[in-house]
Design brief:
single chain; 15 helices; about 40% strand; globular; 7-stranded antiparallel beta sheet; 14-stranded mixed beta sheet; alpha+beta
């Protein structure tokens, strides 16, 4: 409904403003303060402007923040967040609506803005809605890097409020934590990014067993935090609808924060600044270094004392190291009794001693849930130790779980907590139990919080209880509140299946959990634990390899043998399984010093240890959709094989990477297709420029990889022909033994020279030592423009004889503006200033120009006059092009007169900077290019060819000059007689004023 036109109190009406064609700006008084982390950096303040389309809230950038604006459509309320003039987050439109609410089981939403005020740094909007008698009042409070969005519904008796966004407006979406999905998540599925799959999470709340937080962030560096203690219904791309809906099951004020930053990592840090970062690590160094062995997936509930001892003995005898043997479910006489089952565990004291004698700690599984038929249940009821029912607070709350019906100890009752805690400590003291694995939840929505408490308090109470015990690297599943974030618990995932899908989900789920503020992550038990058939050999080994490159290892299924819970049959693995699993454990243990460094760093910064590639490389677009790689700290890129087969593709972001398996140096960005990853190989790469690189290489380098590497820097030197420049070679010994007679050298193109200005030989090179040599390299006076390989080599003597390794970088010889020689001519249809150069059969053009297309024909040209007859072929190699505009164009052209295209016969074949080929012709002789063919990806060098057969023009392109693909063919009726042929370039800078293009060509030819 609409009741009145938009107005701003104490100002002229909108109609008056529009009639006068004015834009008013309202700035808060100078005395107002804007509370931001960067306020001192600028005297500018947020402002609100009004236009015909609505309102704009603008927040200026600072040296630490990019600035942003929120465009508010007032005819139908929509909030469009923009940064640098580009949309980075947009509310949903249409029947969905951005600010939506449910009333009488029907969804309604805010519509026209009827009133607004900008006062004391708060923009308040009042809107009509689709429901008669209901209005929405929304308040936007801007800060430098975020804005608070609070809103209420007045009238209409709503029972749920929600925000809805167009997912694509913000790029890709991440965060959330363990996601419930139609494809089986979180157990066997975790989409990454979230919008790549479907999320349908109807009970998204603080009491959930899932590790979740109401925080999401995007590839466009925006983020959303919903501040609530109520249950939410969250959906992202549900039914492939392209929407994100974030609904709170409450009519209370909807409170949200929208973050606007320059990188996703900064958004994450903003969120951590609100909810807190770990103040300590719950796990010890040893618990990071060695696996925890838990009995669950090995036996499930079919466990007894003899089986557990055999399990521990097999692990010990096969050198499968670990810090703890942890006895999971089904050791109690009944759930909640906290007493041993005498039939299955006749001598728990003796069991504990034998496990300790093997060098393991001993731990057990516990829960706060007391089954109704247990001895302790009635005692707890009689003493008021249990949570009460939400609907009838005169009776205990009864909940259903995987082991029956139970009550839950009320941790908000000090006497109940003391009773439970006392029972635990007595049990541990009596049987020499070192630590505990807490399972199940501390609260359930069916229960009522104790008077004076809220549901969210129980996460905090559970955190405080667990923090009194050694959790043995199994951590605890608490979330949603500041206490959980600050406690520094290890986070174990929800139970996974035993197949490849679950292995892949274990990787993406760790990325989701760690980037909502829980950095000490581990996968679910290696091999899975979801009651499915035992994992195959390959799944078990690949899972162990993957876990070895995570912060902690959480193990259960023994690589010696296990039990298939679906058949009851024993499963024996072969010796290779044992050996490869042991190698994974040893790799992780060697990596532990590096991992421990990351733990200490996280305690300072809050940054996750295991994180997506784009946290470290935000400008690397390909990183945003990589699902099976991650950074482990700043130096290690983990790319384990998470599927069948023996090869995989590996994406390396920008940087200099050391391949720990092959001992080679690779420069990114680069995709390694078909990378060899047989079962015994775990692909991993070390960023040589990152902190901790040497420690990581020492841990991960394979023994059979070359001991030394050579690295040339800079990565891509450039110079003019005949002009000297410097490069440096660094020869580093990554092996464990001293190398002898290491000699560095440079392999150069013909006619080039190099002179070393430092030592080129080291008689001995100790572990970790580097031989650094600076070289002055001089290209030949007639060196061709373009890329030339410089190869640094080192020959050394190691323990297995003489070896040679190398590294190659492209050295660019630049073209310099000059002139062209006869018979070549030049023309400039830009605003002026085009420059040209020629060296033998090489040519270069520097030009501006708004575009080279139908609406604008602005270009620099090198051409031959009257060189192309009625049957002609024009051909050239486009060696390189460089323009700020992604549609900057360079290529070849034909025309009756290239200086006057309106004379007819005009056609061009160009490569764009980013969007592939374009073949354009003038079909009606008016000098305007009005037909188009092309597309694909951009590549260089690009071999381009235009043929003319009378009025028929055909375009071809090739990557090697031998195999040609037709781009298109067109009729150009105005082509007559002999015409011009040449090379063209246009900056296409209409959206990049003042920017030029540089294009380099070679091998231009015209045949008639």
């Amino acid at each position: 409904m609409r009741t009145q036109p938009l107005r701003r109190r104490k100002t002229r009406s909108l109609g008056t403003l529009l009639a006068a064609s004015l834009a008013l700006t309202f700035i808060p008084p100078v005395t107002e303060s804007l509370t931001t982390k960067a306020q001192a950096d600028t005297a500018d303040r947020p402002k609100v402007t009004q236009s015909a389309d609505g309102l704009t809230l603008s927040v200026p950038g600072t040296k630490n923040t990019p600035g942003y604006s929120v465009a508010i459509a007032t005819d139908e309320l929509a909030l469009t967040t923009e940064r640098s003039g580009k949309t980075v987050l947009d509310t949903a439109g249409g029947d969905t609506g951005g600010l939506r609410f449910r009333s009488d089981e029907k969804w309604e939403h805010a519509t026209a803005v009827t009133d607004w005020t900008w006062q004391s740094g708060v923009l308040t909007l009042t809107t009509d809605t689709t429901l008669d008698g209901a209005t929405v009042q929304a308040r936007l409070t801007p800060e430098a890097d975020r804005y608070q969005l609070d809103w209420d519904v007045e009238g209409g008796n709503p029972d749920q409020l929600g925000l809805a966004y167009d997912l694509s407006s913000a790029g890709h979406w991440y965060g959330h934590g363990e996601a419930e999905t139609p494809q089986g998540g979180p157990g066997v599925n975790q989409p990454w990014p979230l919008d790549a799959g479907e999320v349908d999470h109807e009970t998204f709340g603080p009491a959930s067993y899932n590790m979740i937080d109401p925080f999401w962030y995007t590839s466009k560096s925006t983020g959303l935090r919903v501040d609530t203690g109520d249950v939410m219904d969250v959906a992202l791309n549900k039914g492939k609808d392209g929407l994100g809906t974030f609904t709170i099951e409450s009519p209370d004020t909807y409170k949200a924060t929208v973050f606007v930053e320059s990188t996703p990592l900064e958004v994450y840090r903003d969120y951590i600044g609100i909810v807190g970062k770990p103040t300590k690590s719950d796990a010890t160094y040893e618990q990071y270094a060695k696996p925890l062995w838990n009995s669950w997936a090995q036996f499930y509930t079919k466990i007894d004392q003899e089986k557990l001892l055999d399990y521990a003995t097999d692990l010990s005898d096969n050198g499968l190291d670990g810090h703890t043997i942890q006895l999971d479910d089904k050791w109690e006489s009944n759930y909640g009794n906290l007493t041993w089952d005498p039939k299955t565990f006749p001598d728990p004291k003796g069991l504990s001693k034998k496990i300790h004698d093997m060098g393991f700690d001993f731990g057990i599984w516990v829960t706060l849930w007391i089954n109704l038929d247990s001895d302790n249940y009635q005692y707890a009821v009689d003493n008021g130790y249990l949570l009460m029912d939400a609907k009838d607070t005169n009776k205990p709350c009864e909940v259903t779980w995987w082991n029956g019906q139970a009550g839950i100890i009320d941790l908000a009752n000090p006497e109940a907590k003391a009773w439970y805690e006392g029972n635990l400590k007595k049990l541990m003291d009596t049987y020499d139990i070192d630590g505990l694995k807490f399972d199940t939840r501390f609260f359930d929505e069916k229960c009522a919080p104790r008077e004076g408490h809220q549901a969210t308090d129980y996460q905090k109470l559970g955190t405080e209880l667990a923090d009194e015990f050694d959790l043995q690297g199994a951590g605890i599943r608490v979330h949603w509140n500041q206490t959980a974030h600050e406690a520094g618990f290890v986070t174990r995932q929800v139970d996974k299946g035993t197949g490849w899908d679950s292995l892949r989900a274990s990787a993406t789920q760790n990325l989701a959990i760690s980037t909502i503020g829980y950095p000490f992550v581990e996968s679910d038990m290696i091999g899975g634990s979801g009651g499915q058939p035992a994992p195959t050999k390959d799944v078990l080994v690949r899972w162990a390899q993957s876990a070895s490159l995570m912060p902690l290892m959480y193990a259960s299924t023994s690589p010696v043998d296990t039990n298939d819970t679906t058949t009851g049959q024993k499963v024996d693995y072969d010796q290779e399984t044992v050996d490869l699993y042991r190698e994974a454990i040893e790799t992780h243990e060697k990596l532990a010093p590096y991992i421990w460094d990351q733990v200490q760093s996280t305690l300072k910064t809050g940054d996750p240890i295991m994180r997506p590639l784009f946290f470290d490389f935000p400008k690397d677009k390909a990183s945003y959709t990589v699902t099976d790689e991650w950074m482990l700290g700043p130096a290690v890129l983990a790319a384990p094989k998470l599927s069948t087969g023996a090869t995989r593709s590996v994406h390396l972001p920008p940087g200099t990477w050391y391949d720990v398996n092959q001992g080679t140096v690779i420069r990114g960005p680069k995709t390694l297709k078909g990378y060899a990853a047989p079962l015994g190989v775990t692909p991993a790469f070390v960023n040589l420029k990152a902190k901790g690189a040497a420690k990581a290489i020492k841990a991960l380098k394979r023994d059979d990889a070359p001991a030394a590497s050579v690295l040339i820097s800079p990565d891509a030197p450039s110079t003019d022909a005949g002009t000297p420049f410097e490069v440096t070679t660094e020869v580093t010994n990554w092996g464990t033994r001293t190398l002898k007679n290491a000699t560095a050298a440079l392999d150069l193109p013909d006619g080039w020279t190099a002179k070393a200005t430092g030592p080129t030989t080291a008689q001995s090179l100790k572990n970790g030592a580097t031989l650094t040599t600076t070289w002055t390299v001089t290209p030949a006076d007639d060196a061709r423009w373009g890329s030339h390989d410089l190869t640094g080599t080192v020959i050394y003597t190691g323990y297995d004889g003489s070896q040679k390794v190398s590294d190659t970088v492209p050295a660019q010889v630049k073209a310099a503006p000059g002139s062209v020689q006869e018979p070549y001519l030049t023309a400039d249809t830009t605003s002026g200033g085009a420059q040209y150069a020629q060296s033998g059969d090489q040519f270069a053009i520097w030009a501006s120009g708004q575009d080279l297309s139908g609406w604008k024909d602005e270009k620099g040209v090198i051409y031959r006059d009257d060189a192309a007859g009625e049957k002609a072929t024009v051909q050239a190699q486009l060696v390189s092009q460089d323009s700020a505009s992604p549609v900057g164009k360079a290529g070849i052209a034909l025309a009756n007169d290239l200086t006057a295209p309106e004379k007819g016969g005009y056609a061009v074949l160009v490569m764009t900077e980013s969007y592939g080929l374009e073949f354009m012709t003038d079909s009606d002789g008016d000098g305007k290019l009005d037909t188009w063919a092309g597309g694909g990806s951009t590549y260089h060098p690009a071999h381009l060819k235009l043929t003319r057969d009378g009025a028929t023009y055909t375009a071809y392109a090739s990557k090697d000059g031998e195999t040609w693909s037709q781009v298109g063919t067109a009729q150009v009726p105005s082509a007559t007689g002999t015409g011009d042929a040449g090379m063209v370039a246009s900056a296409a800078n209409v959206n990049y004023p003042g920017e030029n293009i540089e294009a380099v060509f070679s091998g231009f030819s015209v045949t008639s």
